[in-house]
Structures are given as structure tokens and as C-alpha cells.
Specification:
The protein is α/β, with parallel strands linked by helices and 206 residues long. 34% of the residues lie in helices and 16% in strands. It has a 6-stranded mixed β-sheet, sandwiched between helices. Helix 2 packs across helix 3 and helix 4 packs across helix 5.
């Protein structure tokens, strides 16, 4: 099992924690991590793009000129794709881009993502993250103490003070332990976990 240092809000090391290999020490499956990221982005797409084909553009019902004898190329409609104001060839239509992954695949992808952060020394464990109010300045000081400029802060339960304090901090996202996803983990330069969040993640995914 991997041993990781535990820091307090002042950025001082106050101990170590042993991470469960069933979650933070698995064999990394890059294919599943990639698939989970693609799925996350695909599921966020609205898919509302639309353009009109030649059959949907108004007008163009009359043949613009006779078939022969004009010197022009033959034309059947002024709404053909080569005409200005004509329809679009293979026009995009509204569609659903989302696709599903098996639950076991998702879990393995998340474990692989967390393991990659441990192996890359990009995971920091905090003994606790408690703010006595919505104080962005104090939250920024904590991040500066930990030398984190871009990252994901994972807390065990919904703490309005932490979430609201971090909301306007550029480059910092927050998430609850039971709601983290592969995309957020891989996107973050550094993962900051509270000890309670580590315990909850190990409880859910071990």
C-alpha cells in the first residue's frame, strides 16, 4: 500500500496515511480511462445542430430554365446545393451523442485515474478542510500553502462554506467523494483529498 503525507491547512506535514491498493494502487487501464473521458464529453454535448437539406429549403419547385438550348448547364431546382440559397449536402441533424459504459468499466477507469495521480505525485491529502464561513481569501491561502494553482478539491460531504469559497477561484474545482468522475480527475493538475474523502472513496470503490 502507498503511504502518502498528510498536510494541515497551513501546508505543514502532520503525518502519513496508507492508501488502499484496491482503489489507489490498481493496474492502470489507459483504454478505459480514455473511454470514460470520451463518454463524459459526449454526454455533455447538446446535439442540437441543424441545417436544411434541399428538400427542406423553401422554394425551388420550378425548373429555372428549359433543359436544352440555353447554353447553361441543365438545372432542375434553384435549391440544389450548388446554388446560393440552396440546401446543404449531408446536413447535420439533431442527434444524441451519449453512450453507456458498464458500471465495472467506470469503476475501473476511476481507480486507474486515481492511481495515476498517486504514481505521478499529484495527490495531496489534507487532515481536514474546515472554513468558519464563505471566505474565498482563506480558501486561496490554503491552496497557496499547499502550492496548488490548478486542481480538484474533493470533500467527503457537501460543505457549503468550502464549495462557495472555491467557486470564484480560477483553476480550482470542488466535488464530493461519491460524485467524482474520471474527466475531472484527469483534467486536474493536482487532486486534494481530505482524510474523510479518502475514507469515503475507499468505502465506495474498494
Amino acid at each position: 500500500m502507498a503511504n502518502v503525507s498528510v498536510y494541515n491547512m497551513e501546508g505543514k506535514e502532520v503525518g502519513t496515511i496508507e492508501l488502499n491498493d484496491a482503489v489507489f494502487g490498481v493496474e492502470i487501464n489507459e483504454h478505459l480511462v480514455h473511454m470514460a473521458v470520451v463518454q463524459h464529453l459526449a454526454n455533455k454535448r447538446q446535439g442540437t445542430q441543424k441545417a436544411k437539406t434541399r428538400s427542406e429549403v423553401s422554394g425551388g419547385g420550378r425548373k429555372p430554365w428549359r433543359q436544352k438550348g440555353t447554353g447553361h448547364a441543365r438545372q432542375g431546382s434553384t435549391r440544389s446545393p450548388q446554388w446560393t440559397g440552396g440546401g446543404v449536402v449531408f446536413a447535420p441533424v439533431p442527434r444524441d451523442y451519449s453512450f453507456k459504459m458498464n458500471k465495472k468499466e467506470k469503476r475501473k477507469a476511476l481507480k486507474s485515474a486515481l492511481t495515476s495521480k498517486v504514481q505521478g505525485s499529484s495527490l495531496i491529502v489534507l487532515d481536514e478542510l474546515k472554513l468558519d464561513g464563505i471566505k474565498t481569501k482563506k480558501f486561496v491561502n490554503v491552496m497557496n500553502n499547499l502550492k496548488v494553482s490548478k486542481g480538484l478539491v474533493v470533500i467527503a460531504d457537501n460543505d457549503a462554506n468550502v464549495v462557495m469559497s472555491a467557486r470564484n477561484v480560477e483553476g480550482i474545482d470542488t466535488a464530493q467523494a461519491n460524485m467524482i468522475n474520471v474527466y475531472s480527475v484527469m483534467k486536474a493538475k493536482t487532486i486534494v483529498l481530505t482524510k474523510d474523502a479518502v475514507a469515503k472513496i475507499e468505502e465506495v470503490y474498494a
